[in-house]
Amino acid sequence: MRALPASLAGIGGAVLLTATLLVSPAGAQPTTVAGLLAHYYDLSQEAELVNEELLTVQEALAGQQQASAAATAAADEARAAAADARDRANAAQDVDRVADALSSRQDLDALSAFATSTSPDDLIGKLEAASLAAHLTGGPRRGDAALADAEDAADKATAAESAAQAAESKVAAGATDVQQRRTALDAQITEVRAALDNLTPEQRSLLEGIEDYSGEVVIPGGDAGRALEFALGQMGKPYLWGAVGPDSYDCSGLMQTAYRAAGVVMPRVSRQQAQVGKQVARADVQAGDLIFYYEPVHHVAMAVDNTRAVHAPSFGENVKLSAIDNIGPITVIRRVVG
């Protein structure tokens, strides 16, 4: 379960644990505000994990589609080359047949030409014909080896094309499966969020007052400071799965875009981002460091200082500041620059 903010343990938490919803969601949903909120966090965490899987498989699908297109283009080229070689071989066979016919005529050798010619022009014509026959019949039939090589290359290219298309179909099926899981989670989250939106004003004020981490923020210099300044400038914009701005973000999309604004290229998903830079200890966290949560990693926030972080939390929430240790269990902290 995603860690609830520490302030829930106080008076507000006690009220939340006993407050009953005015409108209960369909099915066997929790009937207290605290239970509903915890269920919402659980669903959101699961959705983040599925979202990471979907982004990863979509990247794999895009790469496989490019590989399939390249294999198809190569196969088309190889098949065209084989067809051209086949045409050339057929033409060579036609020439061979002409040569066979010419060489079978008794009057095409030089002696016969001299003996049978009736004029100088006739002699020259017969000598030229004799030379042509000797040239055409002087070697093996042409084009056979080239045709065999071209057809072998075409067969191999066609097999590679089929293998690439089969791999693409397999990855696409996986992407469809993950997309269906994500759609089902979205439906559950929408239902729970609707229940949260139907809280009484008193209950809503408790929820809205849970986290208040406003206060002075010191922006450091360098790329880390530029990335942090950009991320803080997105506060209040809604979470949207797969979004990288400018109007909405998911957690890793916010980090990628923030560091891109500082001129630093980052991978797309948090699991990949968790491999960038160098690892730092929790006690050494500085502004701009990236904090990764859960195992496997599927959420990321950017440190504002040693206690707060800015992040795009989850469905139905906006980019905001939270306590680093309240967002969830920390897996690793990475310093991207510096």
Description of the structure:
The chain is α+β, with helices and mostly antiparallel strands and 338 residues long. It folds into 2 domains: 1-210; 213-338, Alpha-Beta Complex (endopeptidase fold (from Nostoc punctiforme)). It is 57% helix and 7% strand. It has helices at 11-18, 33-103, 110-116, 120-136, 144-197, 201-208, 222-232, 251-261, 270-273; strands at 278-279, 290-293, 299-303, 308-311, 320-323, 330-335. A 6-stranded antiparallel beta sheet has the order 1-6-2-3-4-5. It is elongated and about 125 Å long.
Annotation keywords:
about 350 residues, alpha+beta, endopeptidase fold (from Nostoc punctiforme), 2 domains, six-stranded antiparallel sheet, 9 helices, 6 strands, disordered N terminus
